[in-house]
Amino acid sequence: MPEIEIKEEKLSGGVLVIGSLIWEKSEVRNAWRRESLDLKQHQLISLPIRYGRISSTRNCTYTMVFSSECTVQENLGTGVFIPFSINPIEFKQLEIQAKRMINAEFNKVKNLEFLDWDWGAMGISINPLAVAKDSLKSPLVDLFLKNWSKKYSKSFNPDDYKVGEEKQIISEQGILLIDWPNLPENIDFVIATVIKPQLKNYPSAKNIADRMLVNEYDEYFKENRKEGISTFQDSEIKQLLNKGLT
What we know:
five-stranded mixed sheet, 7 strands
């Protein structure tokens, strides 16, 4: 059977942001936002996110993770989508964009060989319209995903990115297992940072608020809310913080 000729070698994409990448000011993060993203076109979207990892760089308070427990409507949170400043792009450009995002996560240039590391990984989600059998983009999407899956280390384990018996949120191929968000039809894919929770159980709203109060750090929570980033627990967390501060 002759190979399918792929006339178009580019797809349009962007990033999903669920935390400080959108608001924290640093040289590396400022440069990433300025050079890689079209910030004017950002929009809020529903995502399965929650506070679920204790971060040593945030005074040991909880930070955001993707969670399959939050895929039901009542547990959905809100994150940010931002398209790349240059679209469409080839796979080599996607790889560059992914590594720039990793640098932004670390707040320094890392030059990692793979798309996963000790506490996280990059995940990709594809627009269902682009993978439909009658889509002219389908062969190219398959090629992108094949190349993407080769960029993970042998130690990459999707089970590290979930808590307890919940379903995986990222596949062995690095695909982010979420419903496609309500994005423009011309966006073919998004990438996002998937973080290892490293917890036996997800925290309650009280657990989250208590850590902020005891450790005297609520910047992450407040700055997220300023950007519209929130979880199903936010209202209760806010009430508990207000009570604790009075």
